[in-house]
Write a structure and sequence with these properties.
The structure holds 2 protein chains of 2 kinds. Chain A contains 29 helices and 24 strands. Chain A is of the alpha+beta class. In chain A, the strands form 4 sheets. In chain A, strands 13, 14, 15, 16, 17, 18, 19 and 20 form an 8-stranded mixed sheet that branches. In chain A, strands 2-3-8-5-7-6 form a 6-stranded mixed beta barrel. Chain A has a 4-stranded antiparallel sheet with strand order 12-23-11-24. The two termini of chain A are 67 Å apart. By secondary structure, chain B is an alpha+beta fold. Chain B contains 4 helices and 3 strands; from the N terminus they run αβααββα. Chain B has helices at 16-27, 32-42, 51-63, 87-112; strands spanning 30-31, 67-73, 79-85. In chain B, a hairpin with a 5-residue loop joins β2 (67-73) and β3 (79-85). Chain B is globular. The chains are: A alpha+beta, B alpha+beta. Chain A binds chain B through residues 4-5, 7-8, 11-12, 15, 26, 28-30, 32-33, 35-37, 39-40, 42, 44-45, 49-50, 52-53, 55-57, 59-61, 64-65, 68, and chain B through 1, 3-5, 31-34, 36-37, 40, 48, 50-53, 55-56, 59-60, 63-66, 74, 76, 78-81, 92.
Chain lengths: 892, 115
Amino acid sequence: MPMDLLREWLARAAGFWRPDRSDSDLEAELRAHIALAEDAGRPTARRVEIAPALESLRDQRGLPVLDGIARDVRQGLRALRRSPTFALITIVTLALGIAAATTVFAVIDGVLLAPLPYPDAGRVVAVWNAAPGAPGLADVSGDLRLSDSMYFTYAEQNRVFDAFGVWGSETATITGHGEPEEVRVAVVSDGVLQALGVAPFAGRLLNAADQQPGTQQTAILSYGYWQRRFGGDPRAIGSLLTVDAAPRLVVGVMPPRFTLADAHPDLILPIRFDRSRAQLPGFGWQGIARLEPGVTIQQADADLARMLPLWMTSWPAPAGVDPHVYEAWRITPAIRPLKTDIVGSVDSALRVLMATAGIVLLIACANVATLVLVRRDERQHELSVRVALGAGRARIVRALAVEMLLLAATAAAIGAFASACCVRVLAAFAPSELPRAGEIALGVRELAFAAGAGVLAALAISVIPALRAMPSLTDVAAGATRTTTDSRIRQRGRNLLIVAQLAMALVLLGSSGLMFRTFRALHGVRPGFTDPAHQLTLRIAIPDVLVPDDRRVAVLEHDIVDRIKAVAGVESVGFATTIPMAGTLPDWDVIVPEGGRLSQSDMPPLRLFKMISPGYFHAVGTALIAGRDLSWGDLNAGSRVVLVSENLARELWGGAQAAIGRKIQTLPGAPWHVVVGVVEDVRENGAGKPSPAIVYWPAYEENPYRANRSYIARNITLVVRTPRSGTASLLGDVERAVWSVRADLAIAGVQSMEEIYVHSMAQTSFTMTTLFAASAMALLLALVGVYGVVSYSVSRRMRELGIRVALGGQPGALVLAFVRWGLLLAAFAIPAGLVVAAVLNRLISALLFGVTPLDPLTYGSVVLVLLITAAAASYLPARRILSLNPVDALNH
Amino acid sequence: MSNERAPKAGVLQGTLDLMVLQTLATMGPQHGYAVAARLEQVSAGSIRLNMGTLYPALMRLEQRGLVRGTWGTTDNNRRARYYALTRAGRRRLTEEKAEWDRMTAIMHALLNAGD
């Protein structure tokens, strides 16, 4: 028996795909039956039985459930073909919503959710210190990095790490063939690559032996640099590469797409620690570790906390510094997952975007649901007839759901495709602040997300109309024609959807308005430099090995400035170790003003240190508030002079003028420096961040402690002020000027100050643009929604309106009634939207600057825009009443 | 949507297949109408199969490989689909008959045991 059943179902399955007997064949057999019965004079079977019998036969032939669905799909397609506009609008609307949501999900998945590209990445952590007792630290560098001595202590005494190391980002100059080239370098201690757990593509990783002084210097290439510089030649391993004028043995190549946390180095070089000189401070390294299996971050923190007192007593403080100073800093370990470290700053922006995309999808669904409701009302007649002909309720609901599913599936497919395009564009144009942008892609999870969004949308838009009572037989009896007055309940359902759309549009408009105000506020901030479009910036490094003599470096740099100044059109030239907003690692330390002390109880705050050349302030456009600028005479004479920022002058001496002639030193006993000038504050870390206190030291100065060594800026950024900025010819002239001084200097980081400035606001403008696009879409959808229902209602009530006009009603007043309706919808939406905006506040407030999350001006304008939109969207369709001819309407 | 419509009153659930098989065994290859007419005649009019019951049953038997249908011509020169028992159908009929006899004997014994 089971064999029989198996055979039957196999035959059925075959019959479903390829019926061996056609419908007409089945019908012929039934017709023959009737004919034979008539022949026999016993007409027991009647023709009306053919249809249901045929249905039963079809069910028996194939797989009835699937057959039913296939039939529903065919019917659905037919129904949709009859109303192509409805289908098109629905698909486009949903596709937009799904595309937006999927794209943002792809970004969030790639950046926030997906693990870092390291084996067992959950165990890879970033090792930092917090130092709540170090005043000013937060202003200049956030968390406290690790020092050489900390590396030794942590690496040798920890009980929680499989591997631990420190690293830093630098640049280096490659010479040997062609023009000198500046490359990105990661310098790493033993343990860093081991902690990441990435195997080399070829050759070997760096190890402890590589960091021993006195051995052959080594280097590892990135895959990209190996391809670019060596054409992927395997003989690169074992060859020598000239890095900063010193030969290094290439020992390995990293795999493609290798990243060290958020850095993409061309070269990886071992750090050469000088253990005998290691001191407590020198907090310049970032730490990376791999936790032992099962060890939590809390346990690791506790282990480091155990080692810190040990560290404090094992290493010397710099000459003249009371070692208790570091106790006052209250250094504590602050380990966090490496991923948190990398994605931290964009977290909130991405959450806002996800909420935004979700809202757009919701609005799209609400919009389509409105359309579906309107269409259902129009099809009431058809559905009534189907009910009257005996179609089951469930059957009709299923047919309608299949229709919506068809629409949603098409929309999801188009949306996924559009999203794939968006993701490509996005990955190419994402602000470089967006970490892991390279990992954003449309994968299986994204496609599943799009499909899920499609199914949800289909459910939403088919459930809402299904909540409405199905046509009953009384409807059928009463409803041979459409009912003339719109049912109140139906109207209420549509109104509710429109109010929801308007409210959500208000939320998005409000957010984008706030971002716009933030953007304006950022631009309104005086950044501490002027006319950035007319400033060309470029970096030069003169490494030790290239020019060992510090004094000679000073002369070279002076020469370079003079040669560039001679270039046609150049107004002024200067250089500094770091320029504002460029994101370069700041240098910071404490200063002691005359009369001040450096002690545990009275710990002076950390100040940002810069070394500058004469003319730098003029070139960059930082105004001199008091005193004078640095001069080449100061540098040549070795005068111990210094300039400070205005906020520092005010803090220490009460004002800019009062600062002139005062003295500061870096450590008790160090030479005194006379303040000769005060310059305006500079927004070093971006227009939205407070200006740090800055001390500007001369670019060259004799070192009082060590003969033949000086304080010298070897890595400088030149700023060239000229109207020719941005032209290729200028760059050529400047390059020639530099190389006429020394031909083996690499020029890097060529960009205008404007680019740096714009780049510093990239995250704000990226968020603002996205929100603008989303809110424009939301407003458009809401407009279409209002227009749709008003237009539908007007056309439904044409006859009634005609009668009113015929009876002397003023068409203008009737139009006004519709506009009032639109405004009333908006009036309901406004408080609802404001409440939602207030709830979502927390999401966006982290992104704002110079504006409160519930800015009255922003929301006032948004409310106005919404009211105007609602009025316009209801006026346009209602305008038809004005041209209404009462006679036509009555005849209608 | 049930895929097997309930047989008309008078046809015990599950017995229709047996009736059809037996009819074809007695009469040889026959078209659907002849099967229905024969059953009606034998039951003295108490079994009247409508088309929606008979033809799906024939199709089911065919799908199970118990009968085979081919188009042919009647004496009156009408085209009709003739169903013939296959070897498997014959075997199945024997089994089902034995099973039916056994079952009715049991039922008979059971129902009359109290007398």
